[in-house]
Amino acid sequence: MTSPESINAVWNARDLAALWHPCTQMHDHAAGIIPLLPIQSAQGAWLTDMQGQRYLDAVSSWWTCLFGHRDPRLVAALKTQLDELDHVLLAGFGHAPAIELAEELLRVAPSGLSKVFYADNGSAAVEVALKMAFHYYRNRGDGERTKFVALGNGYHGETLGALAVTDVPLYRRTYAPLLLEPLFAPSPDAYLAEPGEDAEACALRAAEGLRELLERQGRSVCALILEPLVQCAGGMRMYHPRYLTEVRRLCDAHGVLLIADEIATGFGRSGTLFACEHAGIAPDLMLLSKGLTGGMLPLSAVLATSAIHDAFYAEHAAGKAFLHSHSYTGNPLACSVARAVLRIFASNPVLADNRATAARMATLAAPLADHPHVAQVRQTGMILAIEMVADARSRKPFDASERRGLRAYRHALSRGVLLRPLGDVLYWMPPYCIDEDELALLATVTREAIDVASAA
Ligand SMILES: *Cc1c(COP(=O)(O)O)cnc(C)c1O
User: Fold this and answer.
1) What count of other Cβ atoms lies within 10 Å of the Cβ of residue 367?
2) Å from CA of 453 to ligand 1 middle
3) What is the mean pLDDT of residues 335-352?
4) Domain co-membership, 229 together with 326
5) Distance (Å, rounded) from C-alpha 147 to C-alpha 168?
6) pLDDT by residue (tens digit) across 411-431?
7) Which of 147, 270, 307, 332 is least surrounded, with the fewest CB atoms within 10 Å of its CB?
8) Do 203 and 329 fall within a single domain?
9) Nearest CA to ligand 1 atom 6
10) 3-class SS at 109?
11) Ligand 1 close to Cβ of residue 232 (< 6 A)
12) Crossing angle, helix 436-454 and helix 404-414, to 10 degrees?
C-alpha cells in the first residue's frame, strides 16, 4: 500500500522519467529545488494534487482559465459537441462551430475586422499574422516591405517567428542567431517613466521614438506587432492607452499594418472585452488564444480586415493564396467551447462583475505598496502586479541569481496558493470566479511570500 503522503512522490518519479516540462530546468525538479506537483483534478479557482492538497490558481493556469476550471457551461458545450463531430479538416470543409464562432467573434471585435483565420495556439497565430502581413504587401506588388517593428520588452511566443518579435532575453537570447531581425521600438512601459513624467508622457515619449524609427525606415516595414496595454510575459509591465492611439496614427501615416496581440489581454482581462478598446482603436490584425476557450482546449484565431483578405483573393493562376495550414485548424470541439465562452459574456455582466473584483484586488494589494521591497503595485483590470526589488526607493532589482521570485513561489505553494512569478514580479491574474475569501487568502499569502522572499 502506498501511503497518502507518498502518492505525489510516486507520480513525480514517473514524471521525471518520462516528461520534459515547458519553461523548466529539469534539474530544479530532480534536485527538489522547485516542487513538482501532480494534479488530479480542478474545480473553480482550485487545483487538487494526487494527495488531496488544494492550490488556489491565482494565475489562471498561464492566463487561460477565465471563469474557473471545469466551468459547467463549457463542460456541457464540449460534451454536446463531442456527440456530433470530433474533427474534420478545415480545407474544403466547414462546420457550424467554426462558422458560428467566426461570426460571433467578428460581431464583438473592433470594427473593420471581417475575416477569421484559425490556428491552434498563440504562437501559431503570431506566425500566421506575420506571414499574412508580409504576404499582403507582396500580393500588392510591394516587395520592399519585409521588416517588422516590435516593442522593447514585448512577448509574442516562442516558435521562431514569434520569438523573433519577442524582446525578453531569457527566451530570445540563445536562439538569436536563428531569428529574423525586427526593428525594436522603445517600450511605452510606465515603470520606465522618468522623474516627473506621468504614464501618458512616458507613452508619448515612446511614441516619439516610434515616429523617428518609422520616418527613417517605415518604407521597409510591413507590420508592427504589440501587446495592447500590458506587456505580460515581460513582467506585467503596463502602459497608457494614449500610446495605442499614437501607434494607430503612425501606422496609418506610414502604411504599416497594426497587429494587436490580444492573446493574453483579450476576453475581459484588461477591463474591456479587448484591450484595444481602452484607446478606441481597431487593429488590422487581431490575435486571440488563451482565454478564447476559457482555458479548456487549444485554439487561436487571427482576425483580419477585408482589405488584407482581398489582397489574397484572385484567380488561382495569380498565385496569391495564403497557404498556411495546421492539422487542427478550427477544431470543432475547441470552437464549440469558445462559443460557450462568448455566450457567457453575452448573457452575464462579466465585465461589470470583474470591475468589482478588480476593485477588491486593488484594495487588498494597496498596503503592499509600502513594503520596503516593493517598488510598485500596478493594475490593469484583472491583472495586478507587484514589482519586488532589493530597494524600493532606488528601485534597484535583486540579483537575478538569488531567485527571490522562486522563494516567493515556494512559500505560496506551501500555503496552498499557486502564485507563479515572472522573475521577481509577483502577479495576480485569477479566474474571474475568485471570491472574497479566496482573494483575502491570496493577499495574505502574497504578503508572507514577499516577506519570506525579500528577507536577507
Ligand atoms: C502566451 C502568449 C503568446 C503565445 O501563446 P502560446 O499559446 O503560448 O503559444 C503570444 N502572445 C502573447 C501576448 C502571449 O501572452
Assistant:
1) 12
2) 28
3) 98
4) yes
5) 19
6) 999 999 999 999 999 999 999
7) 307
8) yes
9) 122
10) coil
11) yes
12) 140
